[in-house]
Amino acid sequence: MTTLISIVAFLFVIAVLITIHEWGHYRMATLVGVRVIRFSIGFGTPLFKWVPKRQPLVGGVAQTTEFVIASLPFGGYVKMQDEREPDQPPIATHEVPHSFNRKPLWARAAVVFAGPLANFVLAILLFSMLNWIGTTLPQAKLAKVLPDSAAAAAQLQAGDVVLAVDARAITDSLQLREMIRQSNQGTEQRWKIQRGETVQTLRVTPRVETEHSEFLGQSQIGRLGAVIGTPDALVEVRYGLVEGLSLGIEKTWDLSALTLRTLGQMLMGEASLKNLTGPVTVAEYSGKTAAMGVSAFMLFLGLMSVSLGVLNLLPLPMLDGGHLMYYLWEWVTGRAVSELWLDRLQRAGFAILISLTLLALYNDLVRVLGLSSFFS
Questions:
Q1: How do residues 45-67 score in pLDDT, each as one tens digit?
Q2: Which of 22, 178, 188, 236 is catalytic?
Q3: What is the domain count for the chain?
Q4: What is the C-alpha separation between 191 and 156, in angstroms, rounded?
Q5: pTM of the full structure
């Protein structure tokens, strides 16, 4: 039963992420006047296909895009009218201006960028919805203060409830822990706490320590030296429309930066290549979060959407980021990348993507089978 839940949840996650990504390409193409021939979720043999009656207008005429759900769910594509494509159906003279290759550079770049952008928008909406719906979290209450710690030096005590740090309101224990971790400069802070019936302000300086991670290498973090949060002191955390949206945008930005930083550390050898996981791990966590409830599943879907958006913007041929690099070259030099170099770069990009896919599958199998990894 658990396996079935994982498979269904995984297929749902993949379908949503691919559909949103390709929908971004599709809608931007129609907005800039490109005729779209096919919108496909998956590759291979079409299982279902239809042509909706109500479609966006291009040149005053409704699109006749064919929508397809294909047999292989690992990806999708938007086939646009393009005179350079060898299998392009005959194009009527009045339809030629609606070809992708005839559009100005900014329009082509916008169509390419719209796919990852749609994934970021989805993540922002999911995180914002979680903020609006609200969730129950442990209160920012100190359960225990360790001796000879930064908390002890600041005269914090077990039972203290943290209300604010440097005038920033504290709503829950997770927020407080994250603020402490980010306090890695050894800077003094002013903590507003409630101790019994009284409210007072204390000066707290988290100690800077080096954290060693198997995956992310080492990094500088702030440490308080206290146990934060107790199971008997919970608080309902819910945000208003604007604040919830703002925090959703902030979380999406932070996760994007973390993903890029992790990829950079793997490239430089500062983080383990075991960080790269494949469909087996995604399926496993899809099932686990689905079993935990709607909120956990929404959070996981948002995380995956951010990852897909960032990965597609990497400057690798065959990815959206690779196409954007071609357009950057065209903008700087005034001429498009030659067909010869396009072919070479596409082949190189395909080889890189296949290598990364095999590495991800290797990491999945090593973890599932409990084997010793080459990257240990």
A1: 889 999 998 888 787 788 889 99
A2: 22
A3: 2
A4: 10
A5: 0.83
